[in-house]
Amino acid sequence: MTDTSQHNPNSAPGDKTLGKRGGGDPGTRGRTTIADGVVEKIAGMATRDVAGVHAMGSGLSRTFGAVRDRVPGGGKSVTRGVKAEVGESQAALDLEIVVDYGVSISDVARDVRENVVAAVERMTGLEVVEVNIAVSDVKLPDEEDDEDEPEQRVQ
After folding, report:
1. Distance between CA 76 and CA 99 in Å, rounded?
2. Are 88 and 52 in contact (CB under 8 A)?
3. For the whole model, what pTM was predicted?
4. What is the largest CA-CA distance in the chain?
5. pLDDT (0 to 100) of residue 79
6. Ranges of residues in the chain whose predicted pLDDT is under 50
7. Spatial contact of 65 and 77, defined as CB atoms under 8 Å apart
């Protein structure tokens, strides 16, 4: 039988230390940092998944966003209306939303908080300490939608 342990010169005679490289579980070696923008994207997607949320951002940011969305390669901005502050183990979020007319704003806000907290904590492992929601507008049924594509003039 071969002894695979190594003798530690600083230990008392007879003490043997198992020869290992590194220290501890490989999954705990090093640091993981998560950018604010990552949390903003997750929160933006989670917010848009809630029934009653019509859009995100203020009227001005939605207008600029609608223009940017029409530019080739511009794409939709999922972070519009989302601001995140990310620390080492916690995150705080500020959301600006537009709700559909007729929905309970307090119910929509509660559902948004629950969905955002669940998504961010599940995907990042960060503790979400607060989700502040500002309702900046109500989408009326007969209002034109800023984010709709204009009708094509040529068929």
Report:
1. 19
2. no
3. 0.70
4. 90
5. 93
6. 1-7, 9, 11, 15, 61-62, 64, 148-150
7. yes
Amino acid making up residue 23: G
Distance in angstroms (rounded) separating the CA atoms of residues 30 and 28: 6
> What is the token pair recorded at 53?
């949320």
The residue assigned the tokens 């901005």 is 77
User: Which residue do the tokens 């900046």 mark?
Assistant: 136
3-class state of residue 43 by DSSP = helix
* Alpha-carbon span 45 to 110, nearest angstrom: 16
User: Distance of CA 66 to CAs 61, 71, 103, Å?
Assistant: 8, 9, 24
Strands 53-56, 90-100: pairing kind? antiparallel
Phi-psi category of residue 41: left, alpha or beta, with phi > 0 → left and psi -120 to 50 → alpha: alpha
Cα–Cα dist 142/69, whole Å: 23
* b/e 45-64 (16+ beta carbons within 10 angstroms → b): bbbbebebbbbbbbeebbee
Strands (E) in 8-126, as ranges, are: 17-18, 53-56, 82-86, 90-100
Q: Which H/E stretch holds residue 113? A: helix 105-124
For residue 140, give both structure tokens. Answer: 């009326």
Q: What is the pLDDT of residue 87?
A: 95
